[in-house]
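Late entry, evening session. Most of the bench is empty. Finally got around to the prediction I had been postponing all week. Sequence below, unchanged from the version circulated by S.P.
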Amino acid sequence: MFRRQIEILKENQKILETKSVLVVGAGGLGNVIMSEIGCIGLKEIFLIDFDQIELHNIHRQFQFKEEDIGKYKSKVLADRTHRCGTKIIPIVDKFETFDKKIDLIIDCTDNFEVRKKIDKFAKDNNIPWLYGSVESWIGQVCLFKEKNLDIFNINEHKVSGVMPSMVGLVGSIQASIATKYLAGLEVDFDKLYYIDFSKDLKINLFKV
């Protein structure tokens, strides 16, 4: 099943089979992440989100359809992306309730307060976490290990608008970093990828 991927990862593919991941959020970024890492050969993915699908979600949360409105995002997304043998466990609850052993947390929320809780949980359990955010034509990604959200020096920020194509771009960068880390390949920790497509595409890397 993973032949073309194994051509790149070689023996490291076997490492993926032992890894467990927590994805927090089943919205736009969650749809991209689950669609991409759900079929790389992981042992299991926990997907946590207590929100229900609404009409305005569908244009950027591409695994959902109009007939899904009112259903729980985590359950629908887990079902749609369960196709390659990885065990996918949907959790309809808040992040604070999670207590399983995992190797990586992937942030797919749009809530700064939840991200602070993710950061604390990650630090308390010595687990790296992969931050991602999208607003307009701007995206940000960072694999946190030692540093934390204090680098942003903000308490809360309401997202003004989201372009579906940027969600796909940022989610794919997150998925690529996650795959490399989980497969035991070299990655950069505590470096912020700042993706700007307001004019020509620019990706800048900053040490946080």
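Two things to note before I forget:
The mean pLDDT is 93.
The first strand starts at residue 20 and ends at 24.
Will write this up properly tomorrow.
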